[in-house]
């Protein structure tokens, strides 16, 4: 406590109080530009278990004014996990002229930025069986039992979506 008070007495040091911030919804929607929209939608719906909701279009003027694109319209397909307004949403879009990202995407530490998506599943084996029908195989060894101290009875499996993004599946084996 003395150290904290001493630090606060230094010129230029400002205390930032962590006051709670109210949010109307506490889930985060994730937007993802993909190279093959239909293939990605199949991966996330048929393979993982998202359900598709009504999508929407963003006209060129709005996309440009908002800073989303450089004068390109967007057609967004919306996928959801869960029900109602608190459901997690994945917004997939394909934008003409977008080139796939190049570089090493072998591991989560290969680049900075958002690196993987974690999805909790109720049956790891069922999820992997659905993904196998789409030609998707686990990375490395999977499913791997997590230590009881971390998540008793849960298994971790990493797969790649059609664009090479790492998707971490966590759940029990049934």
Tell me the strand percentage band. 15-25%
Low-pLDDT segments, ≥5 res? 3-8
Radius of gyration (Å): 20 Å
Count, helices: 5
- The CATH architecture term of the largest domain is Roll
Separation, N- and C-terminal Cα atoms:
50 Å
Spell out the helices and strands N to C: HEHEEHEEEHEHEE
Please summarize the sheet with the most strands.
Answer: 5 strands, mixed
- Per the principal axes of the C-alpha atoms, what is the gross shape? globular
Oligomer: single chain
In terms of structural class, how would the helical and strand content be classed?
alpha+beta
Spell out the key features of this protein.
174 residues, alpha+beta, 2,3-Dihydroxybiphenyl 1,2-Dioxygenase, domain 1, Signal recognition particle alu RNA binding heterodimer, srp9/1, five-stranded mixed sheet, four-stranded mixed sheet, 5 helices, 9 strands, disordered N terminus
3D architecture notes:
The protein is α+β, with helices and mostly antiparallel strands. It has 2 domains: about 30-100, 2,3-Dihydroxybiphenyl 1,2-Dioxygenase, domain 1 (Roll); about 115-174, Signal recognition particle alu RNA binding heterodimer, srp9/1 (2-Layer Sandwich), CATH 3.30.720. It has 5 helices and 9 strands; from the N terminus they run H-E-H-E-E-H-E-E-E-H-E-H-E-E. It has helices spanning about 1-10, 35-50, 60-65, 125-135, 150, and strands at about 30-35, 50, 55-60, 75-80, 90-95, 115-120, 145, 155-160, 165-170. The strands form 2 sheets. Strands 1, 2, 3, 4 and 5 form a 5-stranded mixed sheet that branches. Strand 8 (about 155-160) and strand 9 form a beta hairpin. Helix 2 (about 35-50) packs antiparallel against helix 4 (about 125-135). The chain starts with a helix and ends with a strand. About 15% of the residues are buried. Residues about 5-10 have low confidence and may be disordered.
